[in-house]
Structure formats: C-alpha cells, structure tokens
Amino acid sequence: MPAVRLQDVANLAGVSLKTVSNVVRNKPHVSPATRKRVQKAVDELGYVPNMTARRLATGRTGMLELAFPDIQAPYYAELAAHMFDEAKKYDYRLLIEQTRNLPENERAVLADREQGLVDGVIFEPVSLETSQIALLKGDLPLVMLGEVEPPMTVDHVAIDNIAAAKTATEHLLKRGHKRVAFLASEEVNSSTVKRRLTGYEAALREAGMDPDPQLYIAMEKPTTDGAGDAVVAALNHGVEFDGLFCYNDMFAIGAMNAIQSVGLQVPGDIGVVGWNDITMTKYSMPSLTTIAPDVDALCSTALAMMMERIKGYDGIGRHRTVDYQLRERDSTKVI
Q1: Average pLDDT of the chain?
Q2: How far is the C-alpha of 73 from the C-alpha of 278, rounded, in Å?
Q3: How many Cα atoms sit within 13 Å of 271 on the Cβ side?
Q4: Do 257 and 273 fall into the same domain?
Q5: Which of 54, 73, 262, 313 is the one with CA 20 to 30 A from 233?
Q6: Is the pLDDT confidence value at 255 over 60?
Q7: In this structure, are 165 and 270 located in the same domain?
Q8: Both 262 and 308 in a single domain?
Q9: Is the pTM of this model over 0.90?
Q10: Domain interval for residue 217
Q11: CATH code of residue 100
Q12: Are residues 155 and 301 in the same domain?
C-alpha cells in the first residue's frame, strides 16, 4: 500500500496543501473548524509526516535532540518541559537522549547524531573531555549546557556556579550558622562539584573562616537515600555542623529527612540549602531554600543560538551566562 501523502489529506479535507501543512506543523492562523476537518482527514488516512522527505525538501528535519544524564531526575524532567515549549516556538520538536553519565553513551550522542533524524543537539555532557567533544561533533550544530568546558567552536549556556554556591553559603552564614558543611558526590559531575566547592570555600574565607575538611560530606551513592546515609554517618562520627549546602535539591531533601530522623530540627539545629528549585521543594517538610537557575532564560538562549547555527552561523563558540536567584523557604528561616 502506498504511503499517504500530504496531498491525499488535502483532497479529503477539501483544503489547500498549504493549509494541511500549517495544521500538521501546528501553525497559527487556521480556523478551528478547518483545523478540525484537516485533523479528521489525517486520522482517517493515517497520515504520518515523512522526515526524510521533509529533509530533502527543506534541508531540515524539524527535530532537535536534547541529551542529558538522567530523565528521572526532577530537574532534567522540568528542564525538558521548558525546552519543549521553547522549541515549539521555532516549529521544532525534541528527541530525548539519556546518557546516565556514561562516556560511551555521551560519545554516541555526538557520533550517531540519531542517524540524520535531527538538525542539532542540545547536550549536557558529564564524562567527555573538551578534546573528545571537539573530535566527535563534526559539523552538526551543537549547544552545550552544564560545566564541561566547550570546544572553541561550540556554543555554551550555564549559570555561574561559583557565584551561586557563594550566595548559598553566605545565606546560611547570615542566618547565624557557624559551621556550614558541603554535601556532594564526585560521581555526579566533578566539574560542577569543583565549581560549587570553590564558591562555598570563597564564602567561608570572606567570613574569616578556614574551610574544614571534616565539613566536606562525600556521598557513596549519588541518590536521595545516599545523601541521607552520608549525613547520618557524619553525625554518628561526631562531625558537628549547623548548616548544610547540598549539591542539588534531591540530596537536600534526603539530608533533611535524615537530620529529622535522628531527632534534630531543620532549621533550628541545622539549616539546609539545595540547588535547582525543582517543584517539590515548595512541598518538602520543611519547604526548601534553594538556588533557582533561570531555566526560562537558559532554554530560550540555547534555542536561539541553536537556530542561528542551523541557519548557517559558523563563528566561534559563544558563552552565555544566565541569572539565578536564592529562593528562601522554611529550611533556613529563623523560627
């Protein structure tokens, strides 16, 4: 049976080819009645857009790939939702690739490039080095997120992790916490951990304190439960701290649960700050103070640079830093 063509849909719906194209691509300026008629014809005929034909006709597929470490992590799930909305403004759709922090998966993102299905890749690598990315990227448009240093020809969008970590630590110090610990795992992303650790230490030194190695709480497993286990282990080993700056919100939530499970209060005994401002931070007990990256700006900046690359910009890589805020909630408020 021959494939259903766009013209077949137009004939059945009694509209022009352009109108069908506008409906299929979710363009505006089509009346609700016409859109409904075209959609009915699409459903009746079982029309499926042909990506190969579209690429031959326009040089583009209308698809982008978004690759990041963990689709189950709330931050990345929320980031993907924002990125979907932003891509739709350019009439683009997204494919999601999960790398699990594994170098072989990250290499595949750049080496395979979804076999010609995508026009560009928005990518947050963790394990690959800059030189590896430069060798693998080829001529496919690429925009990087996160803290891995991009090659000279690759665009990059991030927040200032050092400044934001300094803000988080200063907030705990200003709230009267004298011994602020830092909770993280090198398994998560060593580039990011190092930058946040740098900001944490800078805040301590500006406050006249020398960083105490005992207050670096390392996690064996980069999970919510792993965060709780690490905090309980530190407390059981006699590590004294009254403030805790966590690598991300999920670690912070695990830490708060652990602190309260041993009979201590948050923030009365230990104030806690997270990172990412995921939705559940508003509803944790207590609600979590956190660093909130400007995700809207992150996505809009990444997509704008991607569109310029797709349209032919081939200059050196551009580096954009988007803003952040500290959102104070009950986990650091004076009770």
Answers
A1: 91
A2: 10
A3: 24
A4: yes
A5: 73
A6: yes
A7: yes
A8: no
A9: no
A10: 161-293
A11: 3.40.50.2300
A12: yes
pLDDT at 88: 94
Closest to 255 (Cα-Cα) out of 239, 279, 235, 238: 235
- Residues 91, 20: one domain? no
Asked, for residue 55, whether it belongs to a domain, the answer is no
Do residues 281 and 167 share a domain? Answer: yes
Kindly report, residue by residue over 153-211, the tens digit of the pLDDT.
Answer: 999 999 999 999 999 999 999 999 999 999 998 764 578 999 999 999 999 999 999 99
Domain count within the chain? 3
Residue 330 included in any domain:
no
> What band does 16 get if pLDDT is binned at 50, 70 and 90?
confident
Do 114 and 81 lie in a common domain? yes
Q: How many CA atoms lie within 13 A of 50 on its CB side?
A: 12
Q: Please check whether residue 334 lies inside any domain of the structure.
A: no
Of residues 145, 81, 83, 137, the one with CA closest to residue 108: 137
